[in-house]
Structures are given as C-alpha cells and as structure tokens.
Design goal:
Layout (H helix, E strand, L loop, with lengths): L2 E5 L9 H10 L5 E5 H4 L7 H9 L3 E8 L6 H10 L18 E8 L16 H4 L1 H9 L3 E8 L8 H16 L3
Parallel strand pairs: 1-2, 1-3, 3-4, 4-5
Length: 177
C-alpha cells in the first residue's frame, strides 16, 4: 500500500535531515508519494479540492516537518485549516472522508530529546506538544498512529547522525498498519 507523505519545510534546500528523508523516499516511488506543500504552493494559495481528492486516494498519510516554535510550519497549519473542512472532513453529513485512514507525524527536532521531558528545558514531551494534531485527526475519525521524532539535529548534524535516522524513519512509515 502506497503512503502519501506531505512534506512542509519552508527552506528544504537548506535542510539536512528532511532533505535526506525525502531522498530516501524518492528511491521507492512504488511505496511513497511525496507531496511538498512549499513546492506545490509557493504562493500559499491552496487548492482545497485538489488536496481533498489527493487525501481520499491514500489510506496511509504522514505529515513530515521540522518542529520549531513548538509547532508545525505555518503553511501546514494553514493547509489543515483550509483542507479539513466541515462537510468533508467532519460533520454529520460529511461522510468523514479521512475516517479510518492511518495518519502519523514525522518530525525533526533541533533540541535533544532530554529537553522534551518534564525535567527538561521545555518541560513537556513531544507527545504532549503534538496533542492538538492527535485531537484533530481523531476528530475527523482518522486512525492516528503517533509520531516519529528525530532529535538533536541542531547540535548534531553530522552525516552519521543524519544517516542513523533513515532506517527508523522508514520503519515507522512502513509499519503504520
């Protein structure tokens, strides 16, 4: 089953880890369909109907993005606001078009994992900070499968550190069932 990977990165050409993940996904076009929001919508004018039709054609969907300011990039938030409409994604007459679809997040985080603990610098876990996504996907009756996070990219961007992320990233996506 092919997985839709919706990538939102405002500076992908400067990315080290998200760009590497995409390179790996591109090696397997029979398994993954990459949809880069900044590439498709450089003017941020989202074609809602086109996006809804794309979502309807996949049963596995992953949102891939860097985590900054304790959230997703603004274009992804705008995309969620505009695409997940009443009457399509939710509502008594919507048919819940995302209902039952396996949805997950793949996140790169600049800070080390210990910073995202109750005792750490930010006092909250990544699971807590991404709760709004979980609630959103549950609200539209999707099957939320959680998050894959690769931490410490800001301090450790060595080729070896980046490469260590690839197999677990693919494994996470491949095991959404």
């Amino acid at each position: 089953m092919k997985t839709l990977v919706i990538v939102t990165h405002p500076a992908l050409e400067k990315s080290v880890i998200n760009k590497r993940w995409i390179e790996e996904l591109e090696k397997h076009p029979e398994k993954y369909h990459i949809h880069s929001l900044h590439e498709v919508y450089p003017d941020e004018k989202i074609d809602v109907l086109k996006e809804q039709q794309l979502l309807e054609s996949f049963d596995h969907i992953v949102f891939q993005f860097p985590f900054y300011w304790f959230n997703c990039p603004p274009l992804l938030k705008k995309w969620l606001d505009e695409v997940l409409t009443h009457g399509w994604a939710y509502g008594s007459k919507s048919g819940y078009k995302l209902g039952g679809k396996k949805i997950a997040l793949a996140i790169s985080a600049g800070i080390e994992e210990s910073g995202y603990t109750p005792e750490g610098k930010y006092k909250y876990t990544m699971e807590t900070l991404t709760t709004p996504f979980q609630i959103t996907f549950e609200y539209v009756k999707a099957d939320y499968k959680g998050i894959y996070v690769y931490y410490d990219i800001e301090q450790n961007s060595s080729p070896e550190w980046i490469e260590q992320s690839v197999a677990p990233f693919l494994g996470f996506i491949d095991n959404l069932s």
